[in-house]
Design goal:
Elements: H1 2-15, E1 23-25, H2 28-33, E2 53-54, E3 61-63, E4 66-72, E5 75-76, E6 79-84, E7 91-97, E8 109-113, E9 120-127, E10 131-137, E11 142-147, E12 154-159, E13 166-173, E14 179-180
Antiparallel strand pairs: 1-12, 2-6, 3-4, 4-5, 4-8, 6-7, 8-13, 9-12, 9-14, 10-11, 10-13
């Protein structure tokens, strides 16, 4: 019986992918307590007051060693814009805006490649309409976060015992929407 149980446990463990020590957070304070030597990217230096700066290319935008690319099935879509405030977005900050997504449409995403030896990453995320943000880490670990829309930000952070080399951020919602990081 003991042998059968060990084989069963090994078989069940093999069905689930190993994600090392990944811990996900939706509370910024808890994430900050578990992280150190952080670099904040606020996109202010990449914005032009009142207009969007387009980075819709294969090379995207690199800031502080992090490369961001807005990926669509037909090409690229990425911009940095400064919010002056509206019904949909709070004002006074610059943000990275990825390609619009439509429910049932293609899997548009923001793909980020991180510098070496990063074991902690956090994101402030917003969308115009309610929907779900899914973040997939380079290890394959996946986390989904519902957003209320109308510029109400959500936070998701991750720590891992192994380096996080990149991540993809997807948006799915009922209406066409832009994803802001």
């Amino acid at each position: 019986m003991a042998y059968s149980l060990k084989v069963l446990l090994l078989f069940v463990a093999a069905l689930f992918p190993a994600f090392g020590g990944v811990i996900s957070y939706t509370d910024r304070s808890s994430w900050l307590l578990s992280s150190s030597a952080l670099t904040t990217i606020d996109f202010q230096a990449q914005s032009s007051s009142g207009t969007a700066t387009d980075y819709s290319t294969a090379s995207g935008l690199t800031v502080a060693g992090v490369n961001f690319v807005g990926v669509t099935p037909g090409g690229y879509g990425l911009a940095v814009t400064e919010s002056e405030g509206s019904f949909f977005w709070p004002g006074g900050f610059a943000f990275l805006m990825g390609p619009a997504s439509v429910a049932g449409g293609p899997a548009n995403r923001i793909s980020a490649t991180l510098p070496a030896n990063i074991t902690s990453v956090g994101l402030d995320l917003m969308s115009i309409y309610p929907g779900t943000i899914t973040v997939i880490l380079s290890s394959g670990y996946q986390f989904s976060l519902p957003l209320n829309g109308f510029g109400q930000p959500g936070f998701v952070g991750f720590t891992d015992t192994a380096p996080i080399t990149g991540l993809d951020v997807y948006y799915s919602g009922a209406l066409a929407s832009k994803l802001a990081v």
